[in-house]
Amino acid sequence: MTLTCVTAQIDWLSLGTLVATLVTALATFWTVLEVKKQRETSYRPEIYLGNQQINFYGLKWKDTFLPFSYSTEEIKEFNDMSCENYINIDLHNVGFGVAKAIEYEWSFDIQRVIESIDQVNHIGFFHVHYDKILEISAPQIEFKFSHMVTNQLRKNTVNYILSSSIEKIATKINVPSCYIDLYLIFLSSALNYYSKKSETKKEVKTHNIELENFPQLKLKLAYKDLHGKSHSKSFGLRFSFNHLSSPENATETRREYGQQLLVATEITE
């Protein structure tokens, strides 16, 4: 065997050793990355927003039942103090890690909402005006109330939400009642409720209402995991038409006039 052949064999052996070392190093690096990824996943929270069913009840004003009473509970014995009109929706943490320093903020396009109402408000029973304060009235029966919209849409905080594998009770946050009231005015107007012409009511069909044209309510969430890494999510909420009759059909003994499901869907902004 010549010196040249021996040198070539040594070179090939060195190259093989180098390749094996490189492959081992890459495998080790890949394993470390996978372990790190699994560790991060084990600490990562995952916020989920559930759907919420809402029961609607007639609010008596003089001799008229208005649509502005609602609750997540089914109320058997109703009086005008039964509904506080505070609707909560559930936040769940379906991840493995705790979510901390949670900030959430509601929003909706109030001008588009009012425009949607104007398009179907042929009777004009309800009047809606917004200029910093949302004013809702029914002049025919001298009814009026208002909402401080900015208070309901301001940023709020939750200290932490444990994983649902540890804490089964959901964290509840309040849905802006101004949005619900505007939606009820939209439905009442589109269905010609409070019209004095009974033949007009008979001509109206619920399937003609295009609920997708009514602007959605949005919820923006920002939170941190156990290591301080920031995460964010956004949800869009719309009402799903279930069953609803006229609030005018409510009586002293039976105030419920319908149910709606508020459906939450994760969106990208």
Radius of gyration: 29 Å
Distance between the termini: 72 Å
Low-confidence stretches: 197-207
Helix content: 25-40%
Largest sheet: 7 strands, antiparallel
Describe, in plain words, how this protein is organized in 3D.
- The protein is of the alpha+beta class.
- It folds into two domains: 1-43; 46-267, no CATH class.
- Helices cover 28% and strands 37% of the residues.
- The chain is built from five helices and 13 strands.
- The chain has helices at 3-43, 110-120, 149-152, 177-190, 198-203; strands spanning 47-49, 52-61, 64-71, 87-93, 99-107, 127-131, 133-138, 143-147, 156-161, 171-175, 217-224, 230-244, 256-267.
- The strands form three sheets. A seven-stranded antiparallel beta sheet has the order 3-2-13-12-11-5-9, with helices on one face. Strands 1-4-10 form a three-stranded antiparallel beta sheet. It has a three-stranded antiparallel beta sheet with strand order 6-7-8.
- The longest helix is centred in the first third of the chain and has 41 residues, at 3-43.
- It is elongated and about 95 Å long.
- The N and C termini lie far apart (72 Å).
